[in-house]
Amino acid sequence: EVQLGESGGGLVQPGGSLRLSCATSGFTFSSYAMTWVRQAPGKGLEWVSGISGSGGSTYYADSVKGRFIISRDNSRNTLYLQMNSLRAEDTAVYYCAKGGRAAAGPIYFDSWGQGTLVTVSS
Amino acid sequence: QSALTQPRSVSGSPGQSVTISCTGTSSDVGGYNYVSWYQQHPGKAPKLMIYDVTRRPSGVPDRFSGSKSGNTASLTISGLQAEDEADYYCCSYAGGYSVVFGGGTKLTVL
C-alpha cells in the first residue's frame, strides 16, 4: 500500500524558515516524480513545486520561486521542501503527492499525504 | 501560471447528472491530453478521480467520466449520490514539471 506522510509544519514568523518532510513507502520512490501542493484556509489547491524521480529536474510556481527549494533523498524515500523568507500568504496546508506514472513528469497525482499546516504569523 | 477556470458551484438532485467545466489555454488544457480531476471532502486530502482526460483509476465508479474539447475539459457525474457532495478540482499539465489547478467547484447534492 502506498503511504505518504508529511511533517514539519507549524507556526513561524514572517521572514522565517521551515523544512517540510514527506516520508513515503509502498512504491519504488526513485521511479516517480513528486510534488508539493498547498491549500490556503478556505481556498483552492495551488501547485507549489515538482521534482523528477532522480531529483535532477525541479520546477517552482512563480509565487515561491527563489524562496522554496524542493529536494529528495531516494535512499530514505523522503521528499523535502525547504521554505525560506516565509510570508503570511504562504499560510496553508501543504500536501505531498506522488506522480501517477513511472519515469514521467507530474502529469497527475494518484496518492496524497494527509497534509501539514504551515502558519506564518507574528 | 494562471489558474484554470471552473464554476464556483454546481448542484443536482440524487440520480441526476451534473457537468463541471474547466477552461484553460493552449499552453495547458488545450496543449496536452493530461487533464486530471480530484475530489476533496472537507478536511480530507484530494482524491484522484480522472486522469489523462478520460481514464478512471481502479475503484472510482464509472458514474464519473471526463472529456475535453479544445481548451475546455469537463467532468460529468451521472446518477448523483449524496456522497458525491464535495469540492472538485481540475488540473492540467503545463509543461516541464509544472501543473496548474482550477479554482475548484463545490458540488451540492440537493
List the helices and strands and how they pair.
The complex is a heterodimer of chains A (122) and B (110).
Chain A: E1 3-7, E2 10-12, E3 18-25, E4 34-39, E5 45-51, E6 58-60, E7 68-73, E8 78-83, E9 92-99, E10 109-112, E11 116-120
Chain B: E1 9-12, E2 18-23, E3 35-40, E4 47-50, E5 64-69, E6 72-77, E7 86-93, E8 99-101, E9 105-109
Brief rundown of the structure:
The complex is a heterodimer of chains A (122) and B (110). By secondary structure, chain A is mostly beta strands. In chain A, 0% of the residues lie in helices and 50% in strands.
Q: How would you characterize this protein structure?
A:
- The complex is a heterodimer of chains A (122) and B (110).
- Chain A is 0% helix and 50% strand.
- Chain A contains no helices and eleven strands.
- In chain A, strands 2, 4, 5, 6, 9, 10 and 11 form a seven-stranded mixed β-sheet that branches.
- In chain A, a hairpin with a 4-residue loop joins strand 7 (68-73) and strand 8.
- Chain B is 0% helix and 44% strand.
- Chain B contains no helices and nine strands.
- In chain B, strands 1, 3, 4, 7, 8 and 9 form a six-stranded mixed β-sheet that branches. A three-stranded antiparallel β-sheet of chain B has the order 2-6-5, with no helix packed on it.
- Chain B is globular and about 40 Å long.
- The N and C termini of chain B lie far apart (34 Å).
- Classes of the chains: A mainly beta (122), B mainly beta (110).
- At the A-B interface, strand 5 and strand 10 of A face strand 3, strand 7 and strand 8 of B.
